[in-house]
Amino acid sequence: MSATVATARYTRKELTADHPTWCPGCGDYSILSIYFKLMEKRQIPHEKITSVAGIGCSSRFPYFVNAHGVHFLHGRAIPFATGISLSRPDLHVFVFGGDGDAFSIGGNHIDHAARKNVKMTYVIMDNEVYGLTKKQTSPTSPMGFKSKTDPTGAVDHPIEPMKKLIAGGATFVARTHSHLPNHVLEMMEQALDHDGFSVIECLSECTEFFPGAFDSANPRKGGTFQLVPPDHDVTDEVAAYRLAMAPAPGYFGVFYQVQRPTKNAFELKLITDAQSRAGSAAVRELLQKTFQKFS
Amino acid sequence: MKNDSARTITDAVIRFAGNSQDGIQAIGGFLARLAGRTDKDVMTYMTIPATISGGPSIYQVRLGTGEVLSAGDDVDFLVAFYQHSYENHIATLRDGGVLIYDSDTVKPDPDQKRYRAVGVPISSLTVEAIGGTGKDKGKNMFVLGLVARLFELDDAKLEGMLNAYYKGKGDDVIRKVVGAFHAGFAYNLGQLDEHFEFKPSDKPPARARVVMDGNQAIAYGAIAAGVRFGAGYPITPWSSIMEILRSELPKYGGTFVQAEDELAAIAMACGASYAGHVALTGTSGPGISLKSEALGWAVMAEMPLVIIDVQRGGPSTGLPTNVEQSDLNIACFTAHGDAPRIVVAPANVEDCFYTTFEAVNLAREYSCPVLVLTDQAIATRVESFEMPDFATFTQDIAPHFDPRGPDYKPYANTADGIAHHAPPGTPMVDGKYPVVTGLEHDESGHPASRPANHVMMVAKRRRKLQVLAEKLSPPAVYGPAEGDVLLVGWGSTQGPIREAVEKARAAGESVSAMHIRYLMPLQPGIGEIMDGFHHVFVVELNDEGLYGYGQLAALLRSRYCNDKIRGINKTDGLPFKVREILDQMHRKLTGREAAGEPLAVGGDEGGAG
Ligand SMILES: Cc1ncc(C[n+]2csc(CCOP(=O)(O)OP(=O)(O)O)c2C)c(N)n1
Ligand code: SF4
Ligand SMILES: [Mg+2]
C-alpha cells in the first residue's frame, strides 16, 4: 500500500523536534530519549515512524518526536492506533499516554485491543497522578495519596496495571522504570519485535505532583530494582499473575509473553480468502455481480 | 394462468399483518423483487417490533406501474393472520377494499358492508400442503401464492426466485416452500370473484432494476466510492450497514471492525483516515451522541470522515424501531466549539447509494467529517431503482505517499481553506514531519493558541464550507416555481410530500415543494424560492419545538429571518401519510389550528416499541 523510499540513516538529531514542555526532572524525558535511541538503533524508515497519543502530560510525546504523529483524544489513542494498524500493515504504531488516559477514561479500550491482539506497542507512562490537570487522584494513585480531589488522602482502591493487562489478554506485558534507561530500552525493543499487542507499564515520576513516588524501586535513591526472576516462565499466565501480586514496588521485566495470531493476520486472511473466491475481478465487475443478485 | 376477467390496475397497497415470526417480511421481499423485475415500481413500508422474537409485525407493499412515491395512506388489500392483526389494522383498509383473513384464527365482523372479506383457512391448508405441525412455518409462502394468483403475477418467475433464494437451505426446505406456494396459488378465491392485473409500464427502464433497502444502498454506495475501512458498534437500525460492510469489504481488500463501543468506532475511523484512507463509521440514536467528541477532533484536525446516522426515535434509547428526523440538530451542531461539518440527507433508497458516494467525495475534497442523515424508514424499506452505472460510479481512492515539501503546510490559510494531509509513510523532503492534533494549530500543524491564529483558523475551517455552498446548485422546485404554498422537506419525506403536491394540485390548490439535500452548508437559492410563495411549511418528522416549528424550520428561520416559515411536524414514529401532510397544511391555512381544533393523530400502528 505504500511507497518505500530509501532514506539515509538517521540519528537522534533528525528525530528531535520541539524541546519538550515537561517540567525539569519529569520522568517522561527519559522515555523520549530511549525512544530516539530505539529508532536510531533499529532504523525504522523515518517516514514510517508513527507515534500516537491521547491527552495528558505524557501524551504530548508525539510533539517532541520529529516523525509522523498524532495527538488525539483523552483515552482514545488505542482505538485510533487500531485504525492505523489494521489499515496500514506497513507501519508499527507506538502509542504513548498516562495512567489516567489508559486506565480511567480509556480503560475499556485496552482490554479489547489486547484480546483482539491488534499489532502495536503501548507505553503507559504511569506517574500515579493526573499531571496535566495538576494533581488530581489517578486510578493508579495509592490509597492515602493526597491530591486536590482527595485532600485527606485517596480512599479508592487503585487499579493494578499488570493484573489488568494480563487478564485483558495482552500477548506481551512488561514493566519498567524510567530511571533505568537501559531496562526501558530492552523492554521497548522486545515489544517492538513482538507480533501482537505489546504493552509496557513504565513508571515515570511526576516530579511536580508526586515526587519520589518510585524511589523505592530506584537504586540511586536507595531502593531496589527487582528484576523478574530468571526462571520465570513468561508463557505461564498464572505465574505472571503471581508476579503482578507482589507488593510495591514489585518486579520489573517481561511478565507475560505468548504468541497468538494477531487481528491483523485474521483480517488479512479474510481479505485473501475473499479475494481468491472472487477471482481477479475489477471492483466494477464485483459490484455489478452483487447488484445482479438484487435484480 | 391468465384470467380474462382480470381488472387492470395501476397501483395496489397490500398490507400483511401478523407476528414477526410469520416471515411476512419475506412475502413482501419476494413481491418487491418480482415487481422490480417487471418494470413496476415498488415501495415497501415495514414496522417491526423492537423485541427480537414474537410480537405484532406488519409489512406493507405498494406496487405500481410508474413512480411510487409513498407507501400509501390507505390499504387496498389487508391480509390478516390473527384476530389482533385484523382488529388493529382493519381501520386502515379503504372503503371497498379487500380483507383476506385466516379463517382458522380470525373472526371478522359478519355485519359490516364497508369492505369485502374473504376467509381462507391459511393455517390448515398450509399444514395440509407441507405436513408437520409447525403452523407458523410456511404460511407466508402460502400467502405469497395466494397473492400471486390474485394479481396475476408471474408464478414461474416467483418460483424460480424461491428456488434460488432457499437453495442453500436444503431440498427439504425448498420442497416445503414451493409446496406451500403452490397450494396458495392453486387456492380458488371463489368468494372474491375478481382478479387484478397491473397495467404494463409504457417506458421500460434503460438499465436493469434492482430492489434493495436503504441500508444496503448505503453500504454499497460506500464500497463503490472506494471506502476500504470502517468501524461501528451494533445498534438498530444502523446494524445492517455494518453487517454488510463486515462481510463484503474483504472482497474489495478492505476491513470493517466491530468496535467495543461508538467512541472506539469513530476513533478507529479517525485513525484509518489519518493513515490516508477515507474511513466510515455510523450509528443510530444514542450512538451519535457518543461520537460527538471525536467528530470535533476530525473537524479540528480536518480529517476526511464519513458518518452515517440512521435516525430513530429519541432522545435516549427512545424508539429503536421507529422513524424520526430529530437528529438534524445534533448532526449539524454536535461537538463543542465552532465545528463546521457537512451534512447531507438522502431522499429515498436509490439516493442512499448516490448520497453516500457523494459524501465520500465531499469528505475527501473538503477534508472534514460528512454526516449522512438517513432514517429508519429508508433503512428498512425496499424500493426498486435502476442499476447504477458502475463505469461512472466506482473509484479508487487508495492513499498516496509521494514525498511532500519543502515547506509543507497541511493547514495553509488558502482561499478555499482546504487542508492537505501527508499520511504516515510519506517522506518529507525537508525532513520536517507533521503531528496532527486536536489542539488549535498553525498552518504547519503546530499547536498554537495565539488569539490571531485561532481567529484565522476558525475562519478557515468555516470558509471551506462556504466555498462548497457556492458550488452547490439551488434545490429544484417540484411544481411551479411560484404559488400559494411551498412544502419544504428533507430526507425520507420527499415521496409523501411530492404525492401531497400532486393531490393538492389535482384538487386545484397551488402547492409546490422544495427538497433540501444539503443541510450544512445549505444550498444557495433557498431564500429566493421561498419568496415565490405566500406560505412556507417545513414538513419534518420531529417535534414542533418550543416555538412552533421543527429543526430544519428553525435552521431556515435563523438563516433567512423569514417568519413565513412554519412547521408541519409529527412524532408518532411513523412515516408521513400524504393525508397527514395535507390535513395539517389545510388546518394552518384556514386558521383552524389557531382556533384550537384538535389534530386527528393518524398513527394506526401505534408504534412498535
Ligand atoms: C474528555 C476529557 N476529559 C477530561 C480531560 C482533561 N484531562 C486532560 S489530561 C487528564 C488526565 C491526565 O492524566 P494522565 O492520563 O495520568 O496523564 P499525565 O498528565 O499524568 O501524564 C485530564 C483529566 C480531557 N482532556 N478530555
Ligand atoms: S506535571 Fe508532572 S508529569 Fe507533567 S510534566 Fe510536570 S513532572 Fe511531568
Ligand atoms: Mg498520570
What is the compact description of this entry?
The complex is a heterodimer of chains A (295) and B (609). Chain A is of the alpha/beta class and 295 residues long. Helix content of chain A is 35%, strand content 15%.
Can you put this structure into words, describing what you see?
The complex is a heterodimer of chains A (295) and B (609). Chain A is an alpha/beta fold and 295 residues long. Chain A is built from 10 helices and 8 strands. Helix content of chain A is 35%, strand content 15%. An 8-stranded mixed sheet of chain A has the order 2-1-3-4-6-5-8-7, with helices on both faces. Chain B folds into 4 domains: 6-196, Pyruvate-ferredoxin oxidoreductase, PFOR, domain III (Pyruvate-ferredoxin Oxidoreductase, domain 3), CATH 3.40.920.10; 210-386, 3-Layer(aba) Sandwich (Rossmann fold); 402-471, no CATH class; 477-590, Rossmann fold (3-Layer(aba) Sandwich), CATH 3.40.50.920. In chain B, the strands form 5 sheets. A 7-stranded mixed sheet of chain B has the order 11-10-12-13-15-14-21, with helices on both faces. The chains are: A alpha/beta (295), B alpha/beta (609). Chains A and B meet through β2, α3, α5, α9 and α10 of A and β9, α7, α9, α11 and β17 of B. Bound molecules: thiamine diphosphate (TPP), iron/sulfur cluster (SF4) and magnesium ion. Thiamine diphosphate binds at residues 55-58, 74, 98-101, 125, 127, 129-133, 138 of chain A. The site of magnesium ion (MG) has 9 residues of chain A, from α4.
